[in-house]
């Protein structure tokens, strides 16, 4: 088992509008996905800091773009930024809430110039959800680079996890010729942490090229 080394990280701020976000002068990654999928938990797990991003039992808690600065990975000291985006697919959200979400998130995804890759989080327990498939289509259609990160792998047996991932791949192959990179994670067992950090390391190396 790999040593669980915390990273140095801090919350930079929360903001709805580009003017309120940190300067885009470092490579940035964002976490997006349905409410309650585990975005904030995964940020805490990746950084090894229990309460960096707020985790709650009330879905729809994160309403702004929350920025964090992380001082390197397990093998590098180059700093990078992480953005926690508000979740979608929250059943109780009003129409105007949904519209505000759409405006803010689309602005972020299309205009954030230092955005290197979107981590789209998907609950591995669920069958492919329309809202996630729509997001994948939107990201692909707009040429925004993304990977899929399955969350909550600890909640299923290993064979179930494997069959759910296979089902997901099959669903995507109905519309896509090539599949995005996929990661399997658990914020409880820290599964996938090393893989995600190694990926971030590799993409960070492309910054400024
Ligand atoms: P919003 O900010 O509301 O969109 O939610 P979120 O996507 O940030 O989810 P959050 O990290 O707040 O987690 C939601 C719930 O799922 C919490 O009760 C977490 O403890 C739980 N959870 C998140 N990730 C995992 C995981 O990998 N395994 C298990 N067992 N529970 C998890
Ligand atoms: Mg959250």
Summed up, what is this model?
The protein has 209 residues and is an alpha/beta fold. It contains five helices and seven strands, in the order ββαββαβαβαβα.
Overview of the structural elements:
With 209 residues, the chain is an alpha/beta fold. The chain has one domain: P-loop containing nucleotide triphosphate hydrolases (Rossmann fold, 3-Layer(aba) Sandwich). Helices cover 32% and strands 20% of the residues. It has helices spanning 39-47, 95-111, 130-141, 158-173, 193-204; strands at residues 9-15, 28-33, 65-70, 80-84, 115-123, 146-151, 182-184. It has a 7-stranded mixed beta sheet with strand order 1-3-4-2-5-6-7, sandwiched between helices. The longest helix is centred in the middle third of the chain and has 17 residues, at 95-111. It starts with 8 loop residues before the first strand and ends in a 5-residue tail after the last helix. The mean pLDDT is 92. Guanosine-5'-triphosphate binds next to helix 1.
Mean pLDDT: 92
Instruction: List the total number of helices.
Output: 5
Structural classification: alpha/beta
Extract low-pLDDT stretches.
none
N-C termini distance: 35 Å
* Domain module tally: 1
**What characterizes the major β-sheet?**
7 strands, mixed
In CATH terms, what is the fold-level topology?
Rossmann fold
Give the neighbour order of strands across the main sheet: 1-3-4-2-5-6-7
Strand tally: 7
Q: List ligands, each type once.
A: guanosine-5'-triphosphate, magnesium ion
CA-atom Rg in angstroms: 16 Å
CATH-defined superfamily:
P-loop containing nucleotide triphosphate hydrolases
Shape: globular
